[in-house]
Amino acid sequence: MRRLALLLVVAALSSTLSSILGLALGASTAPARPCRDQALLDTSYIVCRFDPAVDDLRLFWLTPDGRPYRTFDALSRALQREGRTLLFAMNGGMYERDLSPVGLHIENGHVLSRANTKTVKGQPGQVPNFYKRPNGVFFWGKGGAGVLETGQFLARKPKAAFATQSGPMLVIDGVIHPAFIANSKDVKPRDGVGIGPDGKIYFVMTRGQVSFYDFARAFRDGLGVKNALFLDGGWAPGLYVPELERNDPPAHGGYGPIIAVIR
Length: 263
Fold this sequence. Notes:
This protein has helices spanning 2-29, 72-81, 150-156, 212-223; strands at residues 35-40, 43-50, 56-60, 86-91, 105-107, 110-113, 136-141, 144-149, 162-166, 169-172, 175-176, 190-195, 201-206, 227-233, 239-241, 246-247, 258-262. It is of the alpha+beta class. A hairpin with a 4-residue loop joins strand 15 and strand 16 (246-247). The longest helix is centred in the first third of the chain and has 28 residues, at 2-29.
């Protein structure tokens, strides 16, 4: 009887240990969430990190019938009808009142809107953000992802399956945009994108309001990003991250280009 009781105790302990190990292994192998709250230089942001070699990153603007998607919900429903899931979305750069891109827009290798090289002169506060030169292009494809000043992009002509033009650049080869002012009082919500030293893509959304200068520093000094591009600001920044309960409605009647990660 004593031997039987001892065997039962050993069996129970083995089962418990196996369960604990299983939970530990499960926790260690669970996929990391791409988006999280993160403090960068003592300021709160939402930071989303994706791998262009693994994650299915797309750019959307028009539905099959030629109308803008306008909202993250509309894009999500359209993807669901195709058996796909929208995992992440962010408004993908500047757009006109009719929701058409202000500058370059490439989807699946097709140029739907050409690069905008127009120059607008005036005092910095009078020049729209897109035209605060240099502006830039965020692009990606089989060769990875990148952010380049618009002139460099047009000169180098990298192979891009997807690309969106916006502005201003936040960080250019490790240097903060020359028009940005330290200790500026012009603070707003902002979102942007940059490429890390490991080639990963970082999408960043402010939790509050920051200046252009501090936003650029968040990329360069907080994330080690050498090239980063402003996507939008003011009332316009939009983010779709279900795990963070974010599904921001557009502030101007709809979004134009939408950057999305799907499954």
